[in-house]
Every structure is written in structure tokens, then in C-alpha cells.
Amino acid sequence: MDSPDTPSTPVPAGGAAPAPAADAPAAPAAQPAAAKPAAAKPAPKAEPKAPPPPPGPPDPPPPADAVKPAWLTALEAAHGPAIVATSYWVGDWSVIVQPAHALAVLTWLREAEQCRFDFLSDLTAVDWLPREPRFDIVYCLYSTSRRHRARIKVRLADGEAVASATGVWPAANWLEREVFDLFGVPFAGHPDPRRILLPEDWQGHPQRKDYPLEGPGELMIEDPHQWLELRHRQREAAFE
After folding, report:
1. Of 161, 155, 165, 154, whose CA–CA distance to 180 is shortest?
2. pTM, whole model, 2 decimals?
């Protein structure tokens, strides 16, 4: 029951709620939802840098306490101006020789009494691109009577020739042909300067550092019909 001091608020018909008083505080307006920050894009991964090309073989100088073998002392006395450097590595002595004097030095190493390097155990090459001069020609020598070893190196620029050693060791014949075939290094005076592993019409030299991995030569012709036509023309020319 209402108090006589409190005026009653009439309820309109239909049961609708009464309107708020004019001086009643307004309800706070709904705040817009805060926009979500855009997801940060991951930074692009940096391309891995290619390792720098090797500067060349170590060829460290011999240690101060290393005792030079008799053959090396004799070689320095006989052909000192022809020697570029002397190196000692993993128990073996290496002598770097000027290309113009290579044949004279190799002949002397075979014939000199202190040396008697009668066996050419290997002859190979190393491509040190982009070093200049680019190639190392490596002669691995052994004396069957003195039982000592030597490694002779000749550094050549691309296209530069060195005298053939086939007159000193007949075994150099096939070894020099292999180096020519795979590296493109010419040997002046070689009796049979042909490829030995690859066909004569092969393009390039596969052991060079700049040789394409997919291979040049016939693989550059993608159309097999073109390849067959080229081979057919070459065979026809061979029979003419």
C-alpha cells in the first residue's frame, strides 16, 4: 500500500513500462569493438650466401726445422731460377716450377744421380678458378731405386700449354690426354693429342669448375629429332 506522501505513478493501459524521467542519466552508448591489429608478415628469409671460392691450395712453406732431402737440395742447386716456391705438406715435398722450365726440371729429376725418379705414378690437374693462374698441373714422382717421392707443380693460365713429358716417362702419354680431355690443358709436343675418355665432338671439359652441371654438348639439344639429325649428318660426313 502506497504511502500517502509518495505520489503513485500511473501505469498506462497495455502494461507498457513508463518512460524514464527527463533528468535521468542516459545509458552509455555501446563502444565499437577495437579493431584487431593485422598480423605481422614474417620477414622474408635471406638467400643463403654462396661460400667464397677456395683461394688455392695451401702450399705452406716448410717448417724451420724440416730437413730437406738430398734430391731437393741438388735440384735447388741445379735449377734454382726455375723454382717458384718449395712446400712441405703431410710428409711430402712439393716444388712449384715455372712452366717454361718444367720439361728441363722433370728430365733432370729422372736422370740425376741424387734423384732417379724413374716412375711417374700420376699426372693430374686441379682447377682453382677464379685464381690466376688458374690450373695446377701436378706430377707425382717416385724413385724405385732411392725409394723417395716428389711432387712437382706447374701453374698455368687458361689456354696456356706446357711441354709434354712423354719423352721422359712414356706413361705420361695417356695421363696427359686425360688432363686435356677433362680440363682442356694442352701439352705441347704430345704425339697423340686427342680426347681419351669422351667423344671427339664433345663440347667442353667436364672437370672445369665452370662446366655446367646439366652438361653441354648433346644435352643442349632438347629436341631428340634434332639430335638424331645432327648425328646422322656427322656419320655421313665421316663416310664421305
Report:
1. 161
2. 0.70
